[in-house]
Specification:
Phosphorylase Kinase, domain 1, 12 helices, 46% helix, alpha+beta, Kinase-like_dom_sf, kinase
């Protein structure tokens, strides 16, 4: 287990004070594994706010998730339990302060590592299954709150010359206005809230796509398909993807296209080093 890699990665999210927690990760993983009768394997693909370790118990495979934010981790486990009826999230097997044991998703390849993205039908099956789970009694934030927070947080990066060279403040302001206009007329479903290709895994034949790391909120169902329409590799142009995924999910293609225009500048900031994708996104936003 590479403690230096873990420390470097989580320091970017939590600051230098997280180093002490990171140093204890190997011991913490071993202690939890002993209590739950697990054999510890390799650290799985890195996340921004946690450490995930492959584990086994006989022929069973699991993912042990550890986080320096135990409250956040407990909330995420509760969300996964809420989405469990969809069959499209990992099962929560066990939980204690700062640690959650999940069933492994196999083969578990993240969609953003696949040479060709899932078909519109496959993505639609995932989204439809998630959206049929009722909000229930959960105290979920609104999509409006989520979008306002994201535009404020990511908008601070416009002061970075590398970002400002591609995303002018005028484009950003228009995108925020478009987003707010869409939020004024939104329907309401429980959303995954962070359904980008890195948070969707290949669950293999018979299961299909599986979503991880939800950030649930209540709002417009189009929101959970925007990332697919904007960035699905090898699935035609953005317009083509938006049209086909809208048809597959019974959503308004016009409304989805408007959401794509509103969120394209935000997503483009994640693709500054990818000239083609960045150009396509910003061209859409400026259209």
């Amino acid at each position: 287990m590479d403690v230096d890699e873990i420390t470097g990665r989580l320091t970017r999210r939590f600051g230098p004070s997280v180093a002490e927690w990171c140093a204890r990760v190997p011991k913490r993983a071993a202690e939890v594994a002993a209590r739950w009768d697990l054999v510890v394997g390799e650290v799985m693909p890195p996340g921004a706010s946690s450490v995930v370790v492959a584990c086994a118990r006989g022929d069973e495979r699991f993912a042990l998730k550890l986080s320096p934010e135990p409250v956040f981790l407990a909330e995420q486990a509760a969300v996964l339990r809420h989405f469990a009826p969809s069959g499209r999230v990992p099962e929560v097997v066990a939980e204690e302060d700062g640690a959650v044991l999940l069933t492994a998703v196999l083969p578990g390849t993240p969609v953003d590592e696949a040479p060709i993205s899932p078909s519109p039908g496959e993505w639609a099956d995932l989204v439809t299954a998630l959206h049929t789970v009722p909000p229930g009694g959960g105290r979920w934030p609104s999509l409006r709150d989520r979008c306002e927070e994201a535009f404020a947080r990511i908008g601070r990066r416009l002061t970075d010359p590398a970002v400002a060279a591609h995303v002018p403040t005028g484009m950003w302001a228009r995108a925020l206005d478009r987003c707010r206009a869409l939020l004024d007329t939104q329907p309401q479903v429980l959303l995954h809230g962070d359904l980008h290709p890195g948070n969707v895994l290949d669950g293999g034949p018979g299961r299909g796509l599986v979503a991880i790391d939800p950030r649930p909120c209540v709002g417009d169902p189009c929101f959970d398909v925007v990332d697919y329409a904007l960035t699905a590799t090898g699935r035609g142009t953005i317009t083509t993807r938006a049209t086909t995924i809208a048809a597959a999910t019974n959503l308004s293609p016009t409304r989805l296209h408007d959401w794509c225009r509103a969120l394209a500048p935000m997503i483009a900031i994640s693709y500054l080093d990818d000239d083609r994708t960045r150009t396509d996104l910003l061209s859409l936003a400026d259209h």
